[in-house]
Amino acid sequence: MKKIEAIIKPFRLDDVRSALMEIGINGMTATEVKGFGRQKGHTELYRGAEYVVDFLPKIKLEIVVADEQVDAVLDAIIKSAHSGKIGDGKIFVYPVERAVRIRTGEENEDAL
């Protein structure tokens, strides 16, 4: 099993969720986060004063899937989150040693 973490622009969440549902991904966790990479933030004007917004709002998706689903999930996220502009995000893939569904006690792929 693998855990996929994707950092995407907030307005892309619905597109990414739809693309994942189309390939049979039924569950994920979405968290509002703030961060920056090459995008570096931007300058805003508030009440006549200029200030720098260093951390930009993003969405972090966390999805645990069977090994054979990883490529399909990555493709779906990339295609639906891509705009070609800086700040589209990043995807990280981690190994998952064990998963347990609390309600039933099912483990690993059965728990997904």
Molecular structure report:
The protein has 2 helices and 6 strands, in the order βαββββαβ. It is α+β, with helices and mostly antiparallel strands and 112 residues long. Helix 1 runs antiparallel to helix 2.
Please outline the helices and strands.
Blueprint lengths: L1 E7 L4 H10 L6 E7 L6 E5 L2 E5 L2 E10 L4 H12 L7 E7 L17
Antiparallel strand pairs: 1-5, 1-6, 2-5, 3-4
Keyword list:
single chain; 112 residues; alpha+beta; four-stranded antiparallel β-sheet; two-stranded antiparallel ribbon; 2 helices; 20% helix; 37% strand; elongated
| Helicity range | 10-25%
Regions with pLDDT < 50 over 5+ consecutive residues?
Answer: none
- Counting helices, strands and paired strands, the structural category is alpha+beta
**Shape summary:** elongated
Largest sheet: 4 strands, antiparallel
- The percentage of residues in β strands lies in 35-45%
Oligomer: single chain
